Write the structure tokens for this entry.
Amino acid sequence: MRVFVTCWVLMLMPLPVLALPDWQSPKGMDAEHLGQVLNTRTGEWESPAVLVAALADEAYVLLGEKHDNPDHQALQLWLLQALQSERRQASLVVEMLRSEQQPQLDQWQGQSLPDDVSLPEELGWQGWDWSAYGELVRWGLTYSERLLASNLSRSEIQAAYQQPEPLDEQRYSSAARDQLGRIMQRSHCDKLPEERMPAMLAIQQARDQRMAAVLSSADAPGLLVAGAFHVRKDLGVPLHWPSAMAEPMVVMLVEAGSDLPDAGQADWVWLTPAQPEQDHCAQFR
């Protein structure tokens, strides 16, 4: 009887969670709640283990990052590994891969992978820092059942630029349209000519539409890794999610010192250290 009771106690105990990676970014190390996760619906700060438990039964998850923060890439990999220990990861969808790369991804899925010199060449990797995303790609090709590209091809971007589709006013509120316009201007150092704005917004919309289409048609559980603005409920992929499907869970990795998203933007907010600020626009002044 003692053995029987002990077994039941062990079954009821939470599974051990993988150790979190060491922080790499230097700023905000003294921030309150650093490394914790905010449940925006309750206002409670929780441990990453609670986040893993909350996501384990979700069919689809959107995970938003700041592209130049290595802690965000490290935590993405940690979260995938932790979720995989709870249940299989059927689909991993990433912004950093373009649609025309899918045949190469399928060719290498589940295969013995070459080194970090050969693999990017085999996959046609371009435009993103392989040192930041190489481990994520390797994980997706090895452990998820399928790694899926979700960004537009170059020809699709060119087509959207030449014949821009206006933002869908039934999906984007006026506040969202204004905010996307400000985001586009800031990303172009406030030098974007007004006549080019419709094309930039059309490309953003087309990317979010593609990410929503790829993830929603992928086998569940599926997880999308993308930039923070792409996953936001009020600006990105969720606006294009099929209405017949349950909404995806939105998790945003946010640097200490930044404004925290609210429940209208994300379901969970994971607080990390920050990278030093860089003035990318100094050369244009």
